[in-house]
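Materials and Methods. Structural model of Putative ATPase (MoxR-like) protein. The 341-residue sequence of Putative ATPase (MoxR-like) protein from Oceanibaculum indicum P24 was retrieved and submitted for structure prediction as follows.
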Amino acid sequence: MSVTDPTPFSGSAGTADDKLVAEIETLAERLRLVRERVGRVIFGQEHVVDQAVITLLGGGHCLLIGVPGLAKTKLVETLGTVFGLGEKRIQCTPDLMPADILGSEVLEEGEGGKRAFRFIQGPIFAQLLMADEINRASPRTQSALLQAMQERRVSVAGQYHELPAPFHVLATQNPIEQEGTYPLPEAQLDRFLLQIDVGYPGRDAERQMLIATTGAEEERPVQVMSAADLLHGQRLLRRIPVGDSVIDAILTLVRNGRPEESPIAAVREHVAWGPGPRASQALMLAIRARALMDGRFAPSIDDVLAMAKPVLRHRMALNFAARAEGVTLDAVLDSIAAPLG
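The predicted structure was written out as tokens:
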């Protein structure tokens, strides 16, 4: 089977369980090819690539945070090619208006002088939308993304317009330059399935990148899956069973992060607000996706621990006293996860 074969996954087994196993194995092989192809273009960022693929497989959006030059933009472009998705990019600036993202209605004059409004779609009508430096957009423009990210549709002049399927927003943010930026509101942060912190590559990976990207020819991404394949994978993910012990681990982790009810002293003392129920939903999807990527038929508590920080980082905030004392959110998250493992 060609890597660009768009044929949906199928299993030939007679029973429903056997068919599910066959579909999981087929999808896992496709995802292995995805990671391999992306890894030929993006060097030394394996965990970032894995978490980005988990985001797409979970049907969500992600926030990529890292200093300039770490291939965040290139990652989004590469994922669009490898998954066969229609990809668009917007550069967020303070003067960017909602209509620049959503689109607008224009008055046109047709034959016989008859006038009518016609809607012109904005860049948000894409399967994979990159919002570069999203915290540089004004709050008014940031809020224009809220309905689209949650409802997969936009409202312009009182009319709803459905967005294409699948629809994913991969936003980037620079953690260093804060002048002229507008912090994202909690309601918008909660719309992101994962927050992916992008760090520097290791020495060997950076050496490989130097050689590969400054020569006469540079590796180009190759399509491995189609939009239909991704949609099928998203539906398949929701059929994966999750054991009671894993569900209990998710509930324990999330509820321990809420200062009002947490038994952990560090949370009660240092956390201003904790994760809501959407965090539990995000964690459930993320651990299923992680299991699928490894070709496993059910997630484990190890998956919960691995995905805890990407899911919870942007859904919690430290209070002023904690920041004054130099307490980090990662340290608090470690204390929350400690009882599980």
